[in-house]
Write a structure and sequence with these properties.
26% helix; alpha/beta
Length: 323
């Protein structure tokens, strides 16, 4: 899975930064994106023209199943993440998989079963703005091994099936976050955060899965302000670490809030949806592109940003264009 292998001409990604001459499609049309989170408030003005299906995770026996859902979000976290994706790729088909409760938490088994469903269902991209946080300096407990191994196996199944998983990394340097650190998927950090972002309090260590990040009120109900900081929101940065490999905007990101308004959100939870949207653009232009080639495309775009930043430009012209 080396980057060198991913950039081979046979992979479909050319060294000069073009997808075999095919411009990336900013609409994301035809790409199916799953958002495993707290649900989505589809009545929010940001989703006025969105196509959103709703599912939720339901306890059955010793495990969980995924069943149709009426929609809704009692937390706002999932609505914010889905809003960022829809803003970036308005033509993508979104499916909300409500796995987290109103407190932003779920059992590890529920997360594993929700993710396994997404792989079986053949979504093109799955956004995971959540994770299992484990103290970095403490050895894994015996109770940690099984769920982390199960997540690893599901991530490996996704790689084999061509389902691209995008998962947020830790916000706190003292923690490692699973599945975001797996190399079979795309782990995401946030641009501008030093180390793993020590600005946030440690997550609840009770053992479940939770979404890192926080928000603050910003604006009353109304249509989305799509133009705000549009160029900067396109930015990607390569940062290969144990916890993630690419960074995206994740500080004071404007996104939907419950009640029809908007909010400024900070955390890797809100960086991951930007990467998910970029992946959708790549796959809209080249359906079925291998995951290693998708990764190479993201790093190429990050390199284009870095190159243009050094000469004072903002947008990597020639890498993306509207469709």
């Amino acid at each position: 899975m080396s980057d060198a292998a991913a950039t081979a001409c046979g992979s479909g990604w050319h060294e000069e930064g073009e997808l075999a001459g095919v411009a990336l499609r900013r609409s994301g049309r035809g790409v199916r994106v799953a958002v495993v989170d707290t649900g989505v408030d589809a009545a929010h003005p940001w989703f006025a023209d969105a196509r959103i299906a709703h599912l939720h995770v339901e306890k059955k026996g010793e495990g969980y199943i995924v069943v149709p859902d009426a929609g809704g979000d009692q937390s706002g976290h999932g609505t914010a993440c889905a809003g960022i994706i829809h803003r970036m790729v308005p033509g993508a088909e979104l499916t909300s998989v409500r796995a987290l409760g109103p407190d932003g938490r779920c059992s590890r088994t529920a997360l594993i079963d929700a993710l396994a469903h997404c792989v079986r269902a053949g979504f093109h991209v799955v956004n995971l703005s959540l994770g299992i946080d484990v103290p970095r300096r403490v050895p894994l407990k015996p109770t940690d091994h099984r769920p982390i191994l199960s997540l690893y196996e599901v991530a490996d199944d996704a790689w084999t099936a061509g389902v691209v998983l995008v998962a947020s990394g830790p916000n706190v340097a003292a923690f490692r976050t699973y599945p975001g650190r797996f190399k079979a998927l795309i782990g995401v950090g946030r641009i501008g955060a030093e180390s793993a972002g020590g600005a946030h309090p440690p997550p609840d260590a009770s053992g479940g899965a939770s979404p890192p990040g926080q928000g603050r009120p910003d604006a009353p109900p109304g249509p989305p302000r799509y133009a705000e900081g549009a160029e900067e929101l396109e930015r990607l940065a390569t940062s290969r670490t144990e916890d993630y490999e690419i960074q995206a905007p994740g500080t004071d990101v404007l996104a939907p809030a419950l009640g029809g308004g908007e909010r400024r959100w900070t955390g890797t939870s809100f960086a991951a949806p930007f990467v998910t949207a970029h992946v959708a653009r790549v796959l809209a232009a080249r359906p079925g592109l291998p995951i290693e080639s998708v990764k190479a495309a993201l790093h190429q775009m990050a390199g284009a940003w870095e190159g243009r930043a050094s000469v004072g430009a903002h947008h990597p012209e020639g890498v993306m264009e509207a469709s």
